[in-house]
Amino acid sequence: MENPFRKPYSVRESSREKLAFVLLFGLFIFLFLFLFKPFGFWQIESKTQLLVSFGFGLVTIFVLLIFKFLIEPMVIKGNWTIGKSILWSLVIASSIGAANYFYISIIFPQIFMFKYFLVSIWTAILVGIIPATTGYIISYNRMIRAALQNANIDPVEYSWEPEVLITAGNSRNEFRINPKKIVYLCSNDNYVTIITASGELLNKQHLRGTLKAAEFELRKNSSFFRCHKCYIVNSEFIDHVSGNVQNMRLKLKIQGIEIPVSRQKSGEASRRFR
């Protein structure tokens, strides 16, 4: 029987989704403490409860921002699994508990006691189970739906021109080519490089101009995908997509070339090529 903790778990969150999760998590902590007053919280004076609860929410948001936007992109790689995701959630919850312990020690000065430090971590894990589990379920269901949709997608039929003239917006350029032979285009400063294939051999053509202009000239050929501000790739040459939203790559069928995908295009790349 396959170990469920070793099942792949792809984390695909845009910056907006991360920020929404962080703010909602902090709001949940604030409302939970203020409304339900657990763990002896009711002993605090009524006037102080609102400010202290709000402080716990801010501490939670601060810790989550650090983990989600600074640490997580360096930790989560392509071989992420359900088990790793659960452990990572425990690490984040423990860090929130530790931060909250020091926060409460500042509000109500006290000597550091390891016992209460552990209690604070355990409390953060218990309180965080609800929003963390909810977020996990939503994310996992989204991943399953995307996989099912991709499994039912019929092969795409692309439209082609027999020949295309690429100038990259510079009338001094005149590069005519069968668009089916173009593997990808990339830009560097004021130049566009067009990579074409002849069997397993690759050829380069350098044009002075912009990638945006070249993209416009290729518009009638639906196979081309602008996956990055510096790259346009021919979908016919894509073998598969790897990585997550932070480091997604398009692996090509020829010479094992990998093309980067921007965060803004990661969702579309996943739908088209996974």
Brief description of this entry?
The chain has 274 residues and is of the alpha+beta class. It is built from 6 helices and 10 strands, in the order H-H-H-H-E-E-E-E-E-H-E-E-E-E-E-H.
Would you write up a description of this structure?
- The chain is α+β, with helices and mostly antiparallel strands and 274 residues long.
- The chain folds into two domains: 4-151, no CATH class; 164-273, Beta Barrel (OB fold (Dihydrolipoamide Acetyltransferase, E2P)).
- It is 49% helix and 18% strand.
- The chain is built from six helices and ten strands; from the N terminus they run ααααβββββαβββββα.
- The strands form three sheets. It has a five-stranded antiparallel sheet. Strands 8-9-10 form a three-stranded antiparallel sheet, covered by helices on one side.
- α1 packs across α4 and α3 packs antiparallel against α4.
- The radius of gyration is 25 Å and the shape is elongated.
- The two termini are 26 Å apart.
- The model has no long low-confidence stretch (mean pLDDT 86).
